[in-house]
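Hi support team,

I submitted a single chain yesterday and got back a structure, but I'm not sure I'm reading the token output correctly. Could someone confirm the output below corresponds to the sequence I sent? I've pasted both exactly as they appear in my results page.

Thanks,
R.
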Amino acid sequence: MTPAAVPGFETLGIDTHILERLTKLKYTTPTPIQAQAIPVALTGSDVVGIAQTGTGKTLAFGVPMLQLLAKSEKGQGLILVPTRELALQVEETMIKIGSQFGLVTAVLIGGASMQMQIRNLRRNPHVIIATPGRLVDHLQQRTCSLNDIEIVVLDEADRMFDIGFAPQIKKILEQVPRDRQTFLFSATMPPAIAEIAARHMQAPKRIEVAPAGTSSSNVTQSLYVVSKDMKTSLLDYLLKKHEGTVLVFSRTKHGARKIASSIRTMGHTAVEIHSNRSLAQRKEALAGFKSGKYRILVATDIAARGIDVTGIALVVNYDLPDNSEDYVHRIGRTGRAGHSGLAIAFAQPDQRNDVRAIERLIRKTIRVEELPDELPAPIREAHPMRHHAAEHAMSHEQSPGHRGPRTHGYRGGSNAHSSRTHRGGSRGGFGGGSSRGGSSRGGFGGGSRRPKEAPKFTRHF
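Hi R., thanks for writing in. Yes, this is the structure output for that exact sequence:
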């Protein structure tokens, strides 16, 4: 039986000029979330998209936003993201598509100059990309207005709520015009996100390319049970065994510094990224990781959003995350864009319940690997906790070398599973128009910012 042909971007209702740009950028086949979300978004409907990290959500909302704003006289788009890194990553993608048409953006993130951001806002950007906290700072100082926002995107909404941005998001959504289009994208759909969708969206179309919380089928997952003091030895073993770029997750900033230092001692090139690092340091770390200057990047969950590097071979959960949902986001950094990936987790003997919670969320059992013989003996003392007989481990001792029966999954007994801008003037439409006023800018496709060879878009495609 001949498999059904995968539809191309040309079937999704995208304007020919944007299609030409996508082709030039070598975007040829849409991902499932792109194929389903783009046509719906282009109709003007609100969209709730449930998709795993690394499935191309930026294009899924970016392409419709650019095309719809091109038809607007003065409308703006607002993209809210959880972290600085993701904001910069989203801007990079938007600029790639829209720069030749004269797209103007403003990025509002912490750790960067407020004055520079204010200057960028006075250029009347077509798209504002912001973290909720910094956007609220601008709103409170009246350096940014949201009166002309026509499209709002909440990207990685679950993560924004996890790190405490719920009050800021609600405040922002109360200040944008009611007559707007809203896109919400998330890997999981906890009750707080569902409430936002119900209260602030108009009959959204739900697009679910994978059940909420499930992990990518392109990622092979496994787990080692290991005592805390032996994790570094196991990491050393894995870094020698596996080739390619590696992303290591730490639960804390202090842990990330310590792990990166240990990895450098092992002879590998490594750099850490966490909230205590300056914006310049974090940008350098990401750029170095992408270019190959550093083979290994050690990150915390907050800093990790925006790490969009194709070809990460291995993700190591050196520490299990505090929230099970973060596990899905972590391992989603590998196995992207159709590539295969490997994710390995370290679990301490007393973290059985944490592992079970992750398995319930992802709806699969994580394979437990035998600990390598090359490791020192103390690490092997943790083994009995993952055996079928672990429920009775406290009642009788086992020798350090005893392994017991092998199980497939982190099990201790017979249970298989438990359960927006001050305007100096106005600007023409996104796609053409005139520039009026000293601080105005031409439309998207017109004005002084448009490259000479850019397509001369009309106001309406």
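A quick pointer for reading it: The two ends are 40 Å apart (CA to CA). Let us know if anything else looks off.

Best,
Support desk
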